[in-house]
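Task: complex structure prediction.
Instruction: return structure tokens for all chains below.
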Amino acid sequence: MILVNGVLSEHVRVFDRGLMYGDGVFRTLLVREGRPLCWQRHYDKLCTDCAALGIACPAQDRLLAEMGRLLGTTPDCVLKIIITRGEGARGYAVPEQTEATVILMTGLIPQYPAQHFSDGVRLHLCATRLAIQPRLAGIKHLNRLENVLARREWSDPEIAEGLMLDMEENVIEGTMSNLFLLQGSLLYTPYLGRCGVAGVQRARIMELAGRLGLEVKVENLPLDRVYDADEILLCNSVFGVWQVRELEGKKWRAGNLATRLRAFLNDDALN
Amino acid sequence: MILVNGVLSEHVRVFDRGLMYGDGVFRTLLVREGRPLCWQRHYDKLCTDCAALGIACPAQDRLLAEMGRLLGTTPDCVLKIIITRGEGARGYAVPEQTEATVILMTGLIPQYPAQHFSDGVRLHLCATRLAIQPRLAGIKHLNRLENVLARREWSDPEIAEGLMLDMEENVIEGTMSNLFLLQGSLLYTPYLGRCGVAGVQRARIMELAGRLGLEVKVENLPLDRVYDADEILLCNSVFGVWQVRELEGKKWRAGNLATRLRAFLNDDALN
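Output:
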């Protein structure tokens, strides 16, 4: 089911700057028993991302009211929220008065193989590099051609995700997930101030790590740091946490960090 | 008037990857007396850009037939053509079967001040930098947030365009135009293999320059080369050619290259 600006619809106008220029942001989150998980974090991130582009983020009450209408009939789903800058005339200039377009879409929760959670996943090393653009770094905006090109690099269904590096060969993220590397009691995650998307699940793990006796370090990480890691984890708001068991022929045994983190992350009281 | 996949409509489906990810390309061109100017070049560029993203470009006959329907009622207009990869499920992976979405929109021809053509235009020096991404360089794709952010840097209607540099401080283009620098009998235009859009009007000028006794050089151009130039020209398929008369306080007298080029460019027989 889809609401576009509060109206049941599957369409947006072609004048929408989301279509014209990718001028907007989005979120993808899990809904369980009618409750959008980690909602406050997702809303805060929407606001931050909108602000970075100069888009007026819709009020939380409005979004919650519209979500309430959708989630009554689909209490367990993946919810995608798209906020665009709204409509404009031809040309990049933003009209003085714009009203954001709000799209709420529910979808089926993906059924990933149980092995992804028990044994870990295989990873493709993407040739597509992420451009360095501090002005857009961290934001989950609608300009996602790099992710599209990276995802087109493999079609083997045994490969669950692709690992993306930036133009300077730093490891940044998966095409749809963030990355952590465990090395002893240190948990490394790539610096995302120059490219990449700073996801909500990543932020939660960074906060939770202390409870597991781990210290988090945010750094520029060259690829050899991935190969040297004790455990490699991917995370996002839909699948939660996966360990990586194989990357380009190199294999890792199943560790226990993904399982331990999952126990915390599934406790939504910890948000 | 707008045709979406051959049907009169102002809407696209929210599942369209053009909206979801900016997964598509576009063209903006002039139509005079029902004839899309430089059509073959624009179509060829559409094909090249689609191919670079792995999108199947619609056949020329189909586009011409749909354009014929639109242009009968609006023989003088700006025509915007958007080709997206079509619809997909949630997620970056491209479905095995996709059908490109074709959007044709007509709009009014902008009425720029006569002074823009006689005396030249004022330029803003944009703080927003273009990221270096060879995989997308040259393509007029729908990921245009950098242009949007750059265009938001000024609101003074006296300023006609913004000059954009890349992350390494090379001058690349205007937010909606390409750039040429005249220095003696040499005509420089920035190298666009790492970022920027390689426009049709730029290609035409590069080919025509020889008739004006000018040699074209494609180079990485730092900003001081702009300030040192005898004349600075901007071009696109809608306004044609403008000289720059002012950039951040530095002024240039009206030269004659823009006028001379315009005479050639207006002759569509030269395509």
